[in-house]
Amino acid sequence: MFEDRRLYDGAAGRQTPADQATVRRSNLGLVLRHLRDAGPRSRARIAQDTGLNKATVSSLVAELADRRLVTTGDVDRAGSVGRPGLTVHLDGRGVCGIGVELNVDYIAILVLDLRGEVLVERRVPLDVHDLGAEATLDEVARLVGKGQAAAAERGAVPVGVTVAVPGLVRSADGVATYAPNIGWHDVPVLDGLRARVDFDGAIRVENDANLSAIAEWAMGPEARTPDLVYLTGEVGVGGGLIVDGRLLRGAGGLSGEVGHTALGDPELVCGCGRRGCWETVVGLTALLRAAADPDDPVHDPNRDLETRLAEIAARADAGDRRTLDALQQVGTELGSGAAVLINVFNPQVVLLGGYFAVLGRFLTEPMAAELRARVFGPDLAGARIVLSTLGFTAAVRGGAHVALESVFDDPTLVPATGGDGASPAIGS
Amino acid sequence: MFEDRRLYDGAAGRQTPADQATVRRSNLGLVLRHLRDAGPRSRARIAQDTGLNKATVSSLVAELADRRLVTTGDVDRAGSVGRPGLTVHLDGRGVCGIGVELNVDYIAILVLDLRGEVLVERRVPLDVHDLGAEATLDEVARLVGKGQAAAAERGAVPVGVTVAVPGLVRSADGVATYAPNIGWHDVPVLDGLRARVDFDGAIRVENDANLSAIAEWAMGPEARTPDLVYLTGEVGVGGGLIVDGRLLRGAGGLSGEVGHTALGDPELVCGCGRRGCWETVVGLTALLRAAADPDDPVHDPNRDLETRLAEIAARADAGDRRTLDALQQVGTELGSGAAVLINVFNPQVVLLGGYFAVLGRFLTEPMAAELRARVFGPDLAGARIVLSTLGFTAAVRGGAHVALESVFDDPTLVPATGGDGASPAIGS
């Protein structure tokens, strides 16, 4: 297999040989993705936008309709030359992707259909560290089963499941190699789930921050920002990096590990055994410890996280000095570490997720002050600090999105109805 | 213009509409690049490797030969099916690319022909900071003129000039926006050279570490490593990052600024005015200060850098305690900062250039020890530490390589001879 790699000026397209069937699948995906990203439009407009000829577009649209991925309706007059054509809409209510997250103190599921509509969303408090891997995977499998059932009630068949894990993941075989905040070492998440769930489609396992970054890129407030650094704070601190419109995965899928990187106080010892980890100064535990005595109810992991964060915000709004100082300190440390990432990556946007977003209005000012002192390029090298609006759903949304991408890569994965309207049965 | 962006699983090719002439240029480039990267081979083999059909390959090779970019000769028997064919070789002795570097205490030039042969290489000591921008650009222009003349003597016409600058560069208009080690702010390098040199081809201005990383990727000991962090030490410390086979440029071309990033002792004040810059603990000045008293001749910037570094190495080999301690300290600090980059990028290789390579045998052991303590993934997340063999020529080689890339992108830039063997006259 020949690969044309080029480094400098990546503008020119790669060229690889392709057979007819591959070209057809690729063109089906091209049209489907374009309808998702650019919105409903006529066949003529699709031809104009994509450079495909009109006859090809008509044939592709017919096939997508037969697979129930698009519908036609309404007359499109905007931008059309000659007589108006029927508008083609992305449909795909019959297929869905499932995102699952397991985190330190909860597991969550979210099911998206092909149009990006949320069909199912659930979140279950769970002490994953204490429960251990096997029992946690039992719970995750149960949640996936519930998600499948709820999706089926809506007439949607899942094409894939993606599991978000708070730690290092070897994507190739879906093993969580190292996730210190939940105490996991080399847990075979993919095999464990495969044995537990009644699903023969694709199951993927990914780092949670990477999936969150994908969600932000696909559907967040700064969607399609080519160069984006996503930082999320919970008990752990994660990073997802998007470079030139693509997730930076690294050689072994281990990129973006900012939480256990020496961006913090070099003397502080982290739970992972290292010194100076950023997590020790910007993680949720660091904030809570600075803001409240050990017996303060905001520390209680059995209480809902958003309620506890709302309490912190209320105290800050009431002018509580200790709370304000703690937030100021975390904001400064956020800026100190983020400056390194800005100097190295030069992103357009640093996007804050997780608790950083919930308490963002108290964090961004000290963060920006520190950034101004530390970023080498002028005006933060053009970077803006933005708060995510996806909240704690980013990882599950990213997981569902990734599961659905396989349909956009190859719409023929969804069986044709042959016009009989029968429900599709989707395998791997 | 429609762009098909996809984030997750970048394996599938992008699809963009293309006219006949664009396809022809792209295929000419494809064949030319393949001959460079994979070596001489028959037309049949090229067809097999690239997926182009044989008739197309024959026509492309004929056109490349007419442009004197390839020659045919010798019979190729290896891997051929049916009767052997004449081997096609990359030629291109008639075209060359020019790389120029301006650094703190020297300017340098290197001219490569299309085959990667060095036609000209020169290095002139110069105190760029004291001389100022205008006089330095005069010197650079003079050096380019000499390079052009020397290349012409070898029968090679330059297709482009790339200038390496040790600081932030706005590539779009070739302005060196901020280069503290030479005291430059907003110097219009491109316009300044355009006015001074007799050359109407492409002139580009780039960050020196980025160009060095490109050279390493194209022709260094770890060529074609998809994920590579290149670190170079001189008076300044630079970083060039290659992600999935492409140079990471960042939103404004300001990426890789590791030297003035807070990866060092947080208390140390840098020449740039910030605290904690990595340069203050791993730059050449930090090493020399730790290794020798102020009046020691190794500090003398008027002496050749390689001689001074050889002296440091000789002292270390002789067991001089102070020298060994200084190298140990720099190696440890190199590891401390590189651990951050490994955690964030997860590269296959961290490649050390500049003085880090020259003194590498003293630096890598303490560096690796620190990395083992700090990198989050197992076994340095798979990263290897490698010393560059391109030495201080990396930036100029990268510059020449970039200049030549325009020919591989579009071989029709080189005029056809029409079989009369006349020298090509190459414009922009």
Automatic annotation (TrEMBL), chains A, B:
A GO term, aspect molecular function: DNA binding
SUPFAM superfamilies linked to this entry: Actin-like ATPase domain (SSF53067), Winged helix' DNA-binding domain (SSF46785)
Matching InterPro entries: ATPase_NBD (IPR043129), ROK (IPR000600), Tscrpt_reg_IclR_N (IPR005471), WH-like_DNA-bd_sf (IPR036388), WH_DNA-bd_sf (IPR036390)
This protein's UniProt keywords: Kinase, Transferase
Residue ranges of every copy of the HTH iclR-type domain listed in the record: 31-71
Listed Gene3D superfamilies: 3.30.420.40, Winged helix-like DNA-binding domain superfamily/Winged helix DNA-binding domain
Superkingdom field: Bacteria
GO biological process, one term: regulation of DNA-templated transcription
CDD domains: ASKHA_ATPase_ROK_BsXylR-like
PANTHER family: BIFUNCTIONAL UDP-N-ACETYLGLUCOSAMINE 2-EPIMERASE_N-ACETYLMANNOSAMINE KINASE (PTHR18964:SF149), ROK (REPRESSOR, ORF, KINASE) FAMILY (PTHR18964)
Family: Belongs to the ROK (NagC/XylR) family.
Name of this protein: Sugar kinase of the NBD/HSP70 family, may contain an N-terminal HTH domain
Origin species: Blastococcus tunisiensis
